[in-house]
């Protein structure tokens, strides 16, 4: 009876949690207290970002329950499938088979989505689905290729849409959830994709973390259920009962009896894969560039060294090189990769950075590391085991024209590290990146009444409370983007409201100072972009953005 009672209580509480009355009054305004100050705000997403003050009041900076930020996903009983294994073991292939099988005949607007870490990979998957007669859009930060009637999309993970309902969703390279700057996008997709089936592909090192992250979500997972020392498998619903996670079985045999629940072991449906074709670490280095052969890919990590290596190889007169690196415009990157992959093209050697580092199926026979060090935006550091394995794993792809992959380097000192990295398991990933939703940040900034985004964000992140499974994403580059979007949103909002945007509503002229820190310089760069945006808009909507002179003068002060 205990279980049935718990179930009733759970149903009552759960529906309350879904739209907590303690948060909104009838006029759908929300009362919340931020460090003691009360204010009325009208915010549709507020109830999703729930946190408890000891006084039971509301705290926007409480990020300890990120799973409730995504109500659409929480209202679904998602079936999660983890495909884990080494590179080139068929993980993505099998997940994509499910995506292809999700039928476009369904009346839903969208049926399936693939979310990957790289534009090239999203493009490869879109091409694969279109070739399999499953019309599929390609959506990345810079590209949007839409196919008439397509109900499938292949996107870079940052572009994943949390509001659309899917039948099948794939998140590839989920181990990226531990990435300092991009991990939070993978966490967002993992918690927020609203799909009946969710296929998650990646390195085994991330499985324990994924289990912990998904445990409070209410997803229907397979539980190995120990009842009186008999192992039974039941599909079960995980719900949150006043912060104690209480597994309630939907299986009648358990429901009707009052078998005490001894313990719950949460296990996803985890499929382990083995590598489909061998990857051989060579005992010797390349030696000289005259030993370069068709199908080689030389890996380096700066634009300058990419072009230097390309020149060195082409001087030998035997090979022409394609180049692929991150800051190359997306369409050029695709063209270069396609020409390298094309058997008839004369570009039969590739010089690339880690822009090819994950998931891609290129016709590479041998990976040659020119270095095992890279600048990661903060400092020069050695490649991690996971990075070495991911990049090396591009060689000898199953089904490519090179059935065996080889990997070596230019510098003999690097051979020991290369061999040991390829033999070691990737270190367990302990924490996932997290970042508050934009709604919450803009609400928090309004409640603290200031234009400047940077101090608001720093203050928010100072106060943010996280559970041990998460870390706050490194928001350097994001800051810039957000403050620009932030201003653009304010521009658009003011324009929509009044049809006119005075500069002083967005930016206080005369407040510019010489930056004394890296962050202040970043802030100045963002302000410069905002002023540039205002001037750009003033040329197109002169009456609505009348302060062009002022904006232009402030902009030149900025650049000085
Ligand atoms: N069962 C299969 N039948 C035919 N081709 C397959 C099969 N499994 C995998 N492949 C092909 O083998 C190559 C490697 O598979 P896949 O990309 O799925 O590996 P992966 O485990 O995702 O690798 P990575 O970790 O590098 O992303 C792909 O070209 C894929 O299409
Ligand atoms: Mg893959």
From TrEMBL:
Keyword Mitochondrion: yes
Record's catalysed reaction(s): ATP + H2O = ADP + phosphate + H(+)
Chief localisation class: mitochondrion
GO cellular component: mitochondrial degradosome; mitochondrial nucleoid
Source superkingdom: Eukaryota
Annotated keywords: ATP-binding, Helicase, Hydrolase, Mitochondrion, Mitochondrion nucleoid, Nucleotide-binding, Transit peptide
Localization (cell): Mitochondrion matrix, Mitochondrion nucleoid
GO molecular function ontology, one term from the record: ATP binding
Keyword Ribonucleoprotein applies: no
Domain Helicase C-terminal: 268-442
EC number: 3.6.4.13
Top enzyme class: hydrolase
Biological processes annotated in GO: megagametogenesis; mitochondrial RNA 3'-end processing; pollen development; positive regulation of auxin mediated signaling pathway; positive regulation of cytokinin-activated signaling pathway; positive regulation of gibberellic acid mediated signaling pathway; positive regulation of response to salt stress; positive regulation of response to water deprivation
Subunit structure: Homodimer; in free form. Component of the mitochondrial degradosome (mtEXO) complex which is a heteropentamer containing 2 copies of SUPV3L1 and 3 copies of PNPT1.
Protein name, entry field: RNA helicase
Organism for this UniProt entry: Oryza rufipogon
